[in-house]
Amino acid sequence: MPVLSVIVPFHNVEKYIGPCLDSIAAQTQAELEVICVDDGSADGGPAVVESILAQDPRITLIRQDNHGVGHARNVGVRHAGGAYLAFVDGDDVVPRDAFDRLVSSLEDTGSDLACGNVMRLYRNLLVPSWAHREAFARPAKRTHITRHPLLIRDRMLWNKVYRRSFWDRLGLSFPERMYEDQPVAMAAHIGARTVDVLAKVVYHWRHRDEPDASITQRRLEPGNLRDRLLSVLQTADLLACGAPKLKPDFDRDTLDIDMAVAVEALAEMGGSADPGLVDLAVRYLDGVSREAWQSLPFEQRLLVHLLHERRLDELAGVHAQAGDGRLRPRIGSAGLLRKRWYGRHPSMPGHLSEVSGELALQTRLVGLDWKDGVLHGSGRVAVGRFDVAELRRVRVRTYLQERVTGDVVPLSDEESLPVWESVEQEDGGRLPEHAFPFRFAFDPGTLSRAQLARHGHWDLRVQLRGHGLRLDGRVAGPRWLPPLMPVPRRKSGVWLVPARNAKGAWGVRLRTADAVIGDYRVDGGELLFSGEMSDVGDGEPVLRLQRRSDGEEMYFPVALAGQDFHARVPLADIDERVGHESWWEVVIDQGTAIRPLVRTRQRAVATVDERRFLIDRGEDGCLLLAER
């Protein structure tokens, strides 16, 4: 009898099923059987499985008409003979030692269930799964979801190994619909006597970017939404009966994720929406506590409230306003000793209107440049996406703050009145914004010798005060929009570099420079740049591009002529972006990494082979290459 039975349902994943099975076959836990259940594939996936099983007797193939993944998993369980069960989706990948770690943990502790950390797989890039990052930050043996409540987010099936006797004792089986894994995963967590939590990554969950690739990417289809809501209701009932103290945590996540999908889908359908779908959403929302409602941001809370009230035509209108930025409810306050803040909208009842915990600054730098050796800037600061007319006049203070020491250099402190303005967006459109304008000036002469010598990072910050409100935040702005970054200035041998990070937050970096880029441009699809190195050394330097998200590196030659250097990077040769944006830092590698300082004020945007690139200066003044 095999130690572990691995059940792999698959449907139309010809491109991925081979790597999936290869990763299972390569497991260090060799005493396993792999039960592949073809759920009526119309592509070449079954042929791929047959070619693999011909070389590996541990793999079997069961074929059926398309009944859905829940039915396929139930079929796989009925054929499984192992002492332990695991499930893998046919488009995902399992790290080589994953099953060995999970099974060994169960054999050591006697727990009913072992689960581990997860990474999302974007093409060839692995990033932490947001749903698992906190719950699996630290290992825990013989615990339980009631003692480790972050496991409420661990609602997936496939990062686990189950003791088969436990599975049978609970009588677990899958609903024959989509989103079938959530209620089973939660029933297992609640029904287990003890659970082992592994911090090690045991599963690579693939993000597929082809159209209509997965269930979650077809989330707005009525059938998909119905199955999703049924799964939510089943899980909510399970928690209400078996672990009621965990239900508020489940509701907070469900309101934020599943109800956001329901709002989007039903707002799109409007008055033509199937009443049965609305009934399912309302049934769930009827059981949500006020505490959980309050966890939603005001805008989403309003939309979910309209869904709960079945006001679908109004929901469609408000959803459209929110989508294009026109939903700007006014904020107001109440109370003397303990002032609370509320969003004002005619459709929102008072008991759901408080926004005290979500008020935060949204800032945008509008202009920045040197004048007579002083760095002058201007910007706007808003309070979230609210109309701030009731605040009237406030004080806006700007300052620089050094990250390590906390030293502060005051820049300005002035009264400001809110102004409506149409603000440019990165997609080329414009949105109305109600915000307080501000100006500031930074004289480098205010820095002491010690502050200059520390070569520190100074963040540009803004504080808004008035009417019992005091908010503080970094000055930021869309990375791909103006203003251009001013050129660096030198003082007492130290470069003062106005710069912003990949998220658009501004500051000043103090540094020295072993290499300086004096010019760059895009010509014929190539990034060309040149500059000067203070010490060319003995070896041949190379240009290294390093991706910030995962450390992936690419190398290109550097041509030297004395201390002058020249380099060219064919943009089409750069690895394609992963996710919304990829950021590459440009470093000259000469045995040690030299981060060349960009002295120019320009910023280049280029389209090469339908790929859009931005060439700019990074947070420490080096060359930064972005693709989106």
From TrEMBL:
Record Pfam families: Glycos_transf_2 (PF00535)
Top-rank taxon: Bacteria
Domain Glycosyltransferase 2-like stretches: 5-167
Gene3D superfamilies referenced in this protein's UniProt entry, alphabetically: Spore Coat Polysaccharide Biosynthesis Protein SpsA, Chain A
Protein name (database record): Glycosyltransferase 2-like domain-containing protein
UniProt source species: Nonomuraea monospora
